[in-house]
Amino acid sequence: MSIRNILPLLFVGMLAACNGPQPGSQITKSGLDRRNFQTIVDGDSTDLFTLGNSRGMEVCITNYGGRIVSLMVPDTAGEFRDVVLGFDHIDEYTAQPSSFGATVGRYANRIDKGRFLFDGDTIQLAANSGVHTIHGGYEGWQYKVFDAQQPNDSTLVLSYVSPDGEGGFPGEVRVDVSYAINPSNELVISYEVQTTEKTVINVTNHSFFNLSGDPGNNILDDVLYVNASQYTPLDTTLITTGEVLPVTGTPFDFTKAIPIGDGMARDSTHAQLQIAKGIDHNFVLNSGGNINELAARLYSPRSGITLEVYTNEPGIQVYTGNMLDGSRVGKSRIPYHKQAAVCLETQHFPDSPNKPEWPSTVLEPGATYKSICTYRFLAENGN
């Protein structure tokens, strides 16, 4: 065969290797074995994709649920630590429903009783959280296999087409999620969604962060700042009441950086803490959708690692891992106990389809939903 005939075949092979599952072993910096993520789920191939930058930051993502499995960043001594909770085998994700590290949709967070009125019609979703629907229901995107393309070492694009009626939601919807690491040790997650019919959309990433790098430590000593002077309280079933209340004088006032545990200790008997067994609340960001304005900052005194969050979304859900109970055993065989991590989920407000006075989550045909979340990692010395 001539070299002219061979070259096209080589090019096709290179594309296949880049865009599809690849055989063989690859041990990541975080200690994951790629082979443990290469299987078939619901007829589609799953894999583990590794992103990195010139400074040694590493993010590992599986296309099963668009999940961040590990995230390695340097501490003040230059040692790399894995700062997200996750599992070292795909079976741990498929065997038991969870949102660890996942791309959550079609609608992140809760919808009251799984229903809402839409142009005079009642849309009924499957209830998967008591009487409510959470994170898209049983057919949420965290349980779907995304198509994957990795155009370079620092970028991954995941795509999924959600059929009309999936989970009870109207419209065929396509979502494209881009994960990109830049030289500033930022992980930028960008979402774009289009629909064939009028529908509702609210997408986020559900990573559990422990900036100490050791989930055996809880996050109560981690110092949190949230650029929000208001929050949306919950009823006893964890549905937003429709109120927007000031954080001043409450356990939800993180307008000045304070350890999470100290914030909650302001009033440990506060009804909202009792309802959620900690913090599991939407904060109304003062940034007003300005992607360049800091939304939240989390700092671990154990590692010196700081996480800054930027977003064009109006809200952020702060969840202090209240439902973790040690029954899930993660990477390095460490059980995940209560408050072993904190989630910082950029979003529209929970149950917005039932609260028309809040920022709309409606997506019309011909329009594109665009959401951006930037997680920026620093060490105490500013590196």
UniProtKB/TrEMBL annotation:
**Pathway, according to UniProt?**
Carbohydrate metabolism; hexose metabolism
GO cellular component terms, A-Z: cytoplasm
Is-annotated flag, keyword Signal?
no
Please give the family membership noted in the entry.
Belongs to the aldose epimerase family.
Gene3D superfamilies, A to Z: 2.70.98.10
Q: Name one GO biological process term.
A: glucose metabolic process
Question: What are the subcellular locations of this protein?
Answer: Cytoplasm
Q: Which cofactor does it need?
A: Ca(2+)
UniProt keywords (A-Z) are: Calcium, Carbohydrate metabolism, Cytoplasm, Isomerase, Phosphoprotein
This protein's assembly is summarised as: Monomer.
Q: Please list the reactions this protein catalyses.
A: alpha-D-glucose = beta-D-glucose
The answer to whether UniProt assigns keyword Thylakoid to this entry is no
Major place of localization? cytoplasm
**Which parts of the sequence bind beta-D-galactose?**
N109, R110, D280
Q: Extract one GO molecular function annotation from the record.
A: aldose 1-epimerase activity
Q: What is this protein called?
A: Aldose 1-epimerase
Active site, renumbered: H206, E345
EC number annotated for this UniProt entry? 5.1.3.3
